[in-house]
Amino acid sequence: MRAWRVHELGDPSKVMSLDEIDQPVPGEGQVLVKVRAAALNFPDVLMAQGLYQEKPPLPYTPGVELCGEIVETGQRVIGGPSRGPGAFAEYALMDADNAWPVPDGMTDEKAAALYLTYQTGYVGLHRRANIQAGDWLLVHAGAGGVGSAAIQLGKAVGAKVIATAGGERKTAICRELGADHVIDYTTEDFVPIVKELTGGRGADIVYDPVGGDVFDKSRKCIAFEGRIVVVGFTSGRIPEAPANHLLVKNYSVVGLHWGLYRTMDPPRIGMVHEELTRLVTDGHIDPLIGETLPLDQAPQALAKLADRSTVGKVVLVP
Length: 318
Ligand SMILES: NC(=O)c1ccc[n+]([C@@H]2O[C@H](COP(=O)([O-])OP(=O)(O)OC[C@H]3O[C@@H](n4cnc5c(N)ncnc54)[C@H](OP(=O)(O)O)[C@@H]3O)[C@@H](O)[C@H]2O)c1
Known about the structure:
- This protein is α/β, with parallel strands linked by helices.
- It folds into two domains: 2-114 and 287-317, Alpha-Beta Complex (Quinone Oxidoreductase, Chain A, domain 1), CATH 3.90.180; 117-259, Rossmann fold, CATH 3.40.50.720.
- 32% of the residues lie in helices and 25% in strands.
- The chain contains twelve helices and 15 strands.
- It has helices at 12-15, 42-49, 108-112, 116-128, 145-156, 168-176, 190-197, 212-218, 243-249, 261-264, 267-281, 298-306, and strands spanning 2-6, 16-20, 30-39, 66-70, 76-79, 91-95, 100-101, 136-139, 160-165, 181-184, 203-208, 222-230, 252-255, 289-294, 313-317.
- Strands 3, 4, 5, 6, 7, 14 and 15 form a seven-stranded mixed sheet that branches.
- α8 links the parallel β11 and β12.
- α4 (116-128) packs across α11 (267-281).
- The model has no long low-confidence stretch (mean pLDDT 97).
- Bound molecules: NADP nicotinamide-adenine-dinucleotide phosphate.
- The site of NADP nicotinamide-adenine-dinucleotide phosphate has 30 residues, from α2, α4 and α5.
């Protein structure tokens, strides 16, 4: 079968090759799936660069999220490959107890995008930040994979959503996704705008996949008893939160590592999948697919994700 493999750490558009390798053989508790669509995630870029918390032994096949067809039964499922990455290939192994049914009528591309970013958004907003109807939710990088899911999940629960994004194309997308207010944070300072929109109160929840200066500024417009959810650091800088500032303003900085739920609280993944399926069926969420590309264009697709030029999710189809 054809499978992309990272042979050395570095820029993913340079260190991957499309290799002909043996089909994997399922072990105890695993199923073999024919990959129908695999979605890109920023961690694919970081992992290839050696900058992600997960460091698979080389060579490895990247790709952490897929929609596949179980070879033995023909059932369409979504989830991540067994034991880390492996989705950018024609076949992959999945853990049988972590292969979730595709909601009825959903395309392969959208299904591939319903797992990691939506699970992260749901756990982040509901479990970690206790989101409630009427809350002011500030979503950064709202046109991206993680951000677009968070806008939809925020609206689904009845929050008032403010989204930030870079450039006109992305701010338009945030509006289409249902954000109530949108700020181009590359040209405008979002702090006074958020304060004004919220009547001086600030955002109850900030959902931040960017970090760096964006996190620093978020601390200036977080509400009394607000929660800043630390999702990622696409800006490249890991920020710090002085404890005295948390004390004086009565807010929390909440860490989110969704992958840890697979070991620390496995039943939650199934519960969240059921909720997400219900939200899809009721028309509240609908993954935004920015681009669908053939599997052989994985390096170009990852380069676009790394240089900030993608919107929503980019999906590879073998
Ligand atoms: N905590 C968890 O469990 C978890 C789970 C999944 C993903 N994540 C993290 O969530 C983040 C987003 O992942 P994603 O796959 O959804 O990516 P993405 O949002 O589709 O793409 C990244 C976005 O970040 C923004 N950005 C700001 N500064 C950037 C820079 N210097 N370089 C590149 N992008 C920059 C860009 O939007 P603008 O142009 O609008 O600024 C870009 O579109 C990543 O940090 C990822 O590791 C965390």
